[in-house]
């Protein structure tokens, strides 16, 4: 029987910056052997239209028409350049330009196009070196209904020999929640390092139960469980990434998760935590669960 390979639907938000173009390049490399429908989206808002632009408009033009036309032309150029550079017959591209609130626009297109994964570039806000991610990336991670792979500024695809997944073992994961992670690991035969963020309050029974469930979920994937001190979690994870040549950091978006701690801790506490590898955040489908 012929093996059926499902086509991935991947959303690539762009603001036409070098950073967002770098994320598109990473996506092309990551899924070079997988059939994909790529939706390149730019979301405009009226405040992005400056006074100099207004003075250049003809009397019959509108702000909306001018913004949309320029964005469509820019995405067309991106698609042309990507198709020329990679010439991958497994990949097809679609242009989307919206005039909306950024998160609302992303969520709407994810639902309409049944998006499997959002891949986007990220960098700290200008003039704020302590910002780990730009505000758009943070909002997408926190409020979008689809898994998000954030690509740091300047990060290039260099294989995925080792991937890390963080958890404090306080809730059970469904297999479908881990599907994006499992697919990527299988694609590159990566070794998975499950980093347990230990806490004095965790119960050994819960620890053992979830370890067994994760063993089952990851199946024949090469994986190992590593305990990380929860009191100095940012330093411990950073050091582990550096020491073990981790190529991607992944986690589930749950209450009391590492992600929540990352976004709510004071900036001084996370200043030393630099992520220069891809960062996969998987959606929470268990709204009442806490992790």
Q: How would you sum up this structure, described in words?
A:
The protein is of the alpha/beta class and 291 residues long. It has 10 helices and 10 strands. Strands 3-2-1-4-5-10-9-6-7-8 form a 10-stranded mixed beta sheet, with helices on both faces. Helix 5 links the parallel strand 4 (117-122) and strand 5. The N and C termini lie far apart (41 Å).
End-to-end C-alpha gap: 41 Å
Secondary-structure-based class equals: alpha/beta
Order of helices and strands: EHEHHEHEHEEHEHEHEHHE
CA-based gyration radius = 20 Å
For the sheet with most strands, the description reads:
10 strands, mixed
Indicate the percent of residues in helices. Answer: 25-40%
Please report which band the strand proportion falls in: under 5%, 5-15%, 15-25%, 25-35%, 35-45% or over 45%.
Answer: 15-25%
Note the topology.
Elements: E1 8-13, H1 18-30, E2 36-44, H2 51-56, H3 63-86, E3 91-99, H4 102-112, E4 117-122, H5 135-143, E5 147-152, E6 162-167, H6 179-188, E7 191-198, H7 204-218, E8 223-229, H8 233-243, E9 248-252, H9 258-264, H10 267-270, E10 279-282
Parallel strand pairs: 1-2, 1-4, 2-3, 4-5, 6-7, 6-9, 7-8, 9-10
Antiparallel strand pairs: 5-10
């Amino acid at each position: 029987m012929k093996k059926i390979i499902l086509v991935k639907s991947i959303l690539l938000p762009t603001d036409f910056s070098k950073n967002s173009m770098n994320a598109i390049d990473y996506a092309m490399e990551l899924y070079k052997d997988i059939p994909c429908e790529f939706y390149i989206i730019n979301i405009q808002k009226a405040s992005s239209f400056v006074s100099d632009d207004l003075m250049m408009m003809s009397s019959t033009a509108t702000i909306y028409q001018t913004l949309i036309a320029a964005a469509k032309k820019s995405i067309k150029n991106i698609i042309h350049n990507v198709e020329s550079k990679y010439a991958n017959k497994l990949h097809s591209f679609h242009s989307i330009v919206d005039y909306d609130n950024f998160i609302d626009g992303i969520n709407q297109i994810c639902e309409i196009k049944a998006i499997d994964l959002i891949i986007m570039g990220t960098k700290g806000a200008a003039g704020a070196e302590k910002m780990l991610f730009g505000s758009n990336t943070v909002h997408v991670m926190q409020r979008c209904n689809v898994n998000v792979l954030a690509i740091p500024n300047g990060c290039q695809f260099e294989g995925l020999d080792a991937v890390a997944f963080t958890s404090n073992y306080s809730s059970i994961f469904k297999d479908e929640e881990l599907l994006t992670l499992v697919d990527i690991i299988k694609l590159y035969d990566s070794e998975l390092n499950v980093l347990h963020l230990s806490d004095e309050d965790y119960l050994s029974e819960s620890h053992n139960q979830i370890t067994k469930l994760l063993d089952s979920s990851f199946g024949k994937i090469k994986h190992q469980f590593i305990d990380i001190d929860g009191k100095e979690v940012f330093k411990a994870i950073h050091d582990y990434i550096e020491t073990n040549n981790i190529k991607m950091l992944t986690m589930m978006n749950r209450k009391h998760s590492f992600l929540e701690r990352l976004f709510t801790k004071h900036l001084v506490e996370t200043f030393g935590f630099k992520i220069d590898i891809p960062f996969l955040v998987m959606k929470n489908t268990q709204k009442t669960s806490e992790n």
